[in-house]
Backbone:
């Protein structure tokens, strides 16, 4: 397409309309009901979100209480950094420190909870086939990316997770002051015997995590290389995100009742919903 072919409004409109139906690998499926890879047993009209996040990309969505969220490391090199906010009161957000200390465990996995800074459960982990995640290191930034790749600003070839977050949260009226410590999915970090952080990499293509929203939430994702990834190349591959409607957690749910600390965090949130 040459500039002369879109040099006037009518030609530009014709070109834009001719692009209708064009699909790229990394883009949302709209409507989400048209997603061809919806989870088994999930009806098309239950789908809320279906999107592939490119390497260096970002996405954000509001999900209602009870919704299920599935993150998929499609090719084995995704690194999804996540922020979470209470959708009705965004001043309440994910607290990584409390998520670890309240559960007496430094590592994420099936059955674990993501807790807010107000003592409530934001999301619970229903399934985890990866086991490679990080709750210690936070998001990459322009400086860390520049040190490793030569540049790291938002508009270059090596964008960083923190700057991607800034674009995503702006869509909900939030700013850089609202970017809190994040979790990183699909890139594992463990603590060694001397207290050192050890980068363990990913679990391979197809690994996935399924979460359940325990309140109305805003989920923000950035898919950028982990800050400890030692490779000199910008090594990250697309991630798939799927979300669908689901029922709120019942009183006899095993994750809800697994520990007294977790049960109290559920009860703190349920009080706002009348249970």
Residues:
């Amino acid at each position: 397409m040459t500039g002369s072919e879109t040099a006037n409004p009518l030609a530009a409109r014709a070109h834009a309309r001719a692009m209708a139906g064009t699909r790229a690998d990394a883009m949302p499926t709209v409507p989400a009901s048209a997603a061809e890879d919806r989870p088994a047993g999930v009806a098309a009209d239950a789908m809320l979100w279906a999107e592939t996040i490119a390497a260096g990309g970002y996405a954000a969505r509001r999900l209602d209480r009870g919704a299920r969220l599935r993150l998929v490391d499609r090719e084995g090199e995704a690194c999804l950094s996540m922020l979470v906010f209470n959708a009705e009161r965004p001043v309440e957000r994910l607290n990584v420190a409390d998520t670890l200390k309240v559960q007496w465990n430094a590592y994420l996995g099936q059955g674990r909870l993501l807790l807010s800074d107000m003592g409530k459960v934001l999301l619970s982990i229903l399934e985890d086939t990866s086991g490679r995640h990080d709750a210690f290191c936070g998001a990459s930034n322009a400086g860390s990316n520049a040190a490793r790749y030569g540049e790291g600003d938002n508009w270059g070839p090596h964008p960083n997770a923190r700057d991607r977050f800034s674009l995503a949260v702006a869509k909900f009226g939030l700013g850089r002051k609202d970017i809190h410590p994040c979790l990183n999915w699909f890139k594992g970090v463990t603590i060694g015997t001397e207290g050192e952080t050890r980068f363990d990499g990913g679990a391979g293509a197809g690994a996935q995590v399924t979460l359940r929203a325990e309140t109305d939430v805003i989920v923000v994702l950035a898919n950028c290389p982990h800050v400890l990834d030692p490779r000199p190349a910008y090594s990250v591959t697309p991630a798939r995100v799927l979300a669908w409607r689901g029922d709120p957690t019942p009183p006899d749910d095993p994750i809800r009742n697994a520990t007294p600390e977790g049960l109290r965090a559920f009860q703190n949130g349920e009080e706002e919903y009348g249970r």
